[in-house]
Amino acid sequence: MALDMTVQQAMALGRARDERMRAVAWGMLGLILLGLSAAAGSQISGAIADEEAFLAARPCVETEAARGTEVCLRTIRATVLSAQNAKSGPKGASVFQVRLRAPVPAPADQPFNLDSNGDLAYLIKPGEEVEVTTWRGVQVSVRQDGVSETLPGLPDEATMYVGLTLVVVWTTALAFITAFGSARRARCHATGRPVTPRVGFGWAKALSVFIVPPAASFLSLTLWDAWTAAAMTVAIWALIAFPATYAALRWDRDE
């Protein structure tokens, strides 16, 4: 009997040592994720400032256009050198790629991709003149004969930074909670107290942590601008993620 007790105590101490190691590992992961969340969050204010500056930009006057001032919307008139269908990106998406004849100021000196099925894809031909609107080195839109098309890559990614930050912040919180749980189980094993069963992560919590923030940021991006979109991303995420995670925790415990 005494031998059995000794074996049980040794096994409990071994489990306690394993849980302490897990607590340290989860704590270190939490610190790393905390640094990543701070890095992601630091990009939000700058991205929102760029978005607000772009939304407030007005067409350049003649003196600003001559100096190449970047705070206004600059219109560049140039001749098309080539215009043809092409493949773009790692997935080989079909685009209508246009190059302008030199000399043209940056960023219009770089080729730009239009919708392969858009109106301009059927209008623009080599040798014709087009108008390219730029802002701070970003190609904004292309216009010909009253037909205009907005180009991708405009400064509106602030909410996506918010979504990414929320993913990392919530994962950081889970890492520290898991570290606390491992440390608590280690103390229980060491003192012989009952050990509370672990709560599995589960698909429901994974959905609330990794899927909801990007989905909320994309929704806010389509409905609001700048700080409003960022705030609504956080609000929508909080309304969905917290109840979903809490419900999943309760469901796992009931099992």
Write the layout of secondary structure elements.
Blueprint: H1 2-56, H2 62-67, E1 74-88, E2 93-100, E3 112-115, H3 119-123, E4 129-135, E5 138-144, E6 147-150, H4 158-191, H5 202-223, H6 226-254
Antiparallel strand pairs: 1-2, 1-4, 2-3, 4-5, 5-6
Helix pairs in contact: 1-4, 4-5, 4-6, 5-6
Detailed description of the structure:
By secondary structure, the chain is of the alpha+beta class. The chain is built from 6 helices and 6 strands. It has helices at residues 2-56, 62-67, 119-123, 158-191, 202-223, 226-254; strands spanning 74-88, 93-100, 112-115, 129-135, 138-144, 147-150. Strands 3-2-1-4-5-6 form a 6-stranded antiparallel β-sheet. A hairpin with a 2-residue loop joins strand 4 and strand 5. Helix 4 packs parallel to helix 6 and helix 5 (202-223) runs antiparallel to helix 6. The protein is elongated and about 90 Å long. The two termini are 34 Å apart.
